[in-house]
TrEMBL record:
It comes from Pseudoalteromonas aliena SW19. This is YdbS-like PH domain-containing protein. Pfam families: bPH_2. InterPro entries: YdbS-like_PH. The chain crosses the membrane at residues 31-49, 61-79.
Amino acid sequence: MFNNQQIMDLPEHSVINFKPLADKAVLHTQLNWLVFYIPLIAVLVALCYFNETFANNTQTYLLIGMPILIVISMVYGVVSIKQQGVAIRTHDITFRKGIIWQQITILPLARVQHIEIHRGPIERKLDLASLKLYSAGGMSADLQISGLTHTDCKNIRQFVQDYRQDESTMQATTTDE
């Protein structure tokens, strides 16, 4: 007969020591924001140059608003990166992110099916990489961590592969007995 007991005392969540992202992750985030803002500013300057009524109506807003927007996004990027952290434990990978809405994602290593390392042009120049971990049954990455060094990404990938190898060896040994 099936019996589903009520749990009254939940175990306390263990304290996780998160490792911060790479030092150059802040620079990477700021460069990505600049790659977004420079073309935007160029388009707005061109609009103001070729359309005098647009320039007259928006000049004050653009001169005040754009620098404020840029500074806020740059500060937000720095604080956001400083809040992020990753922890590799015996049986899982944990990632913390968020400033206002904080999120901790724990992905058991036994569920990891596929790992990808991505490096864009800015990441390659800064020796950074992004790690994507996919679990069973998902089409999108269950955990994506940007701002790690390329070496850290390769080490995490090797750790997960070794874990999967050890797990399959243990299962084969248990089945044979």
